[in-house]
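Journal club prep — side note

Before the paper discussion, L.F. wants everyone to see what a predicted structure for a comparable chain looks like in C-alpha cell form. Sequence:
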Amino acid sequence: MIDRLDHLETPVMHRSRLEPVAWVLCACAAAAVAMLVFQEGGGARAWSSLLAGLMLPLWLAVGAIFFLAVHALCGARWSVPLQNVMQGVGAGLPLAILALLAICAGGIPFIYEWAHGNPARDSLFRDPHGSKAWWMGETRWVITVSAVLAILLVLSRGLARHGAAADEAARARLVRWSVLSLIVLVPAFTLLMWDTLLALHVQWVSTVFGGYCLIGAIHAFLGATALALAWLSRKGLHQVARPHLLKDLGTWIVAWSCIVAYISYVQYAVISFANIDEESFWYLMRAQHGYGTQALVEVIVRCAIPFALLMSQSLRAKPWALGVAGACVLLGTWLEVHWLVIPAFSPNHYRMPIGPEALVALGFLAGTFLLAVRHWRRRGLVPPGDPRVLPAINAEHLH
C-alpha cells in the first residue's frame, strides 16, 4: 500500500559538508598530475592517468543522455521525479571535455604510438601511406574528438532544457530531441571510443567496442544515480525516494549488471576462439602480470555483488542497499577503465589501480559531484512545473 502524497514541497539542495572534501580531492588530483609530469619519464603516465580519469565523468554523462532520451521517447513516467537527479549525475561532462582538449593540445605524442614524430610510426601500418595511416593522424584526431565533444555537450544541454514537460507541446519537443539524441549519440560515442581507447593499440580491431563502452557507460550512470539517490534521500528527496522508485532503479541495475557481464564475456569469447594475432594480443596483455586478476575482481565487484544484493525485493527498496550497489558499480567501472587504459603503458609491470591514477580519478568524480550539486541548486531536485511528478511519486502508473 502506497501512501498518497497530495502535495510535494519543493525539495531544496542545501550546503553539504562533502563539498569542501570534494574541493580538496580536486586539488589533490591536480597535484598528482603535476607530480607525475615532473617524474622521470612521467609524461606518459601523467597523460594516461588523465585519459583514464576523464572516462568516468564522460561515461556518466553519456549514460545520462542515453537513459533520459530512451525514457522520454518511450513516455516512461516512473523516472520523471528523478530526471534532475539523473541530469546532475551527468553534469561532469565539461570536466571530460576540458581534459580531452588538454590531450588534444599536448598529450597525443605521450599517449598514442601512431603520433607523428615517433620514429617507429611507419612500422605500425601495412601501408605507411595508406588510408589507415592517414586516418590515424593528429589533425584528423583533434577535429573528430572536438566535434564529438561539441555534439555531446549540445545533446546534454538540450535534454536538460527540454526535460521538464509542462504541457503536450513541450513533451512533443522533448520526444523529437530524444529521437535526435539517440540517432546521433551512438555513432558519435562509438567514434570517440575508437579514437581515445581503441587507438591505444593501432593494430587492434573490435567491431563491438563502441557498444561495449556504451553499455559500460549506462551501467556506471545507473550506479552513480543509485548512490546519489541514496544520499539525497536523507537530504531533500525523502518524499520522492519512495520504495517503488528505488525498486525500479534497482531493477535496472540488476538487469544491466547481467548485460555488462554478458557483453564482456562475448567479446572475450569471440576473440579467444578466433585466436587472431591482431586481436588476441590485446587480451594477452591484459591477462598477465596481475591484470587478469584485476579483470576478475572487476566483474565480481561491478556485476556479481550488485546483482546478488539487489535480487532481494525488500533490499532493493532500501536506500542503503541501493547506495552500496551503486558504489560497487562505480568502483568496478574504475577498475574496468584502468584495465582498458593502463596496460598499454605498463604491459610488463602491474600498475595497481590505487596509485596516483586513482587519485586523479577521484578528482574527476569529486568535480562531477560539485557540478551535480550546482546543477541541483540551479534547476531543483525535481523537474519544476511538470504535472507528471506527483502521479509518479504516488505510483499511479502502476495501477
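L.F.'s comment for the group: Residues 18-384 form one domain. Keep this in mind when we get to the figures.
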